[in-house]
Amino acid sequence: MKVRTLALALALFPALATLCSAEDLSTGTWKLNESKSQIPAGFIKNMTVVYSAEGDKTKIVTDGFGRDGKPMHTEWVGKLDGKDYPLTGDPGANSRSIQKIDDHHMKLENKKDGKVVVSGSIVIAKDGKSRTLTASGMDPSGKKVTSATVYDKQ
Q: Domain tally for the chain?
């Protein structure tokens, strides 16, 4: 009986180890899929977004282009708990909050001096191979605009 139990435990160990070490679906590098995205003029265009673990927090690094079309690099480190954490590199915002709803859904807000300037949601596809950020904010003229940005996992 002990031999069977040991054999079963050894057979199941790789599957259990995989489940226990499974990383967050958002972790990794995401590349903009421009053909599937709808980005209005005057909206930030992130070409790559990289999610990584940093202790008990998540680090998000973006590289792309700002509203002015010039290269832009941002960094954010925080918990996915809906609280504000500092955002660097974005002249239009200085903090961001992200709330993880479940493995496939998050809500975010970018703020400038405490005022929400961009709000949105992130949906990771069921297969984990793409994610869509739907965001609303103001264009330079003060008109409300919405973008739907699709990223493919690399």
A: 1
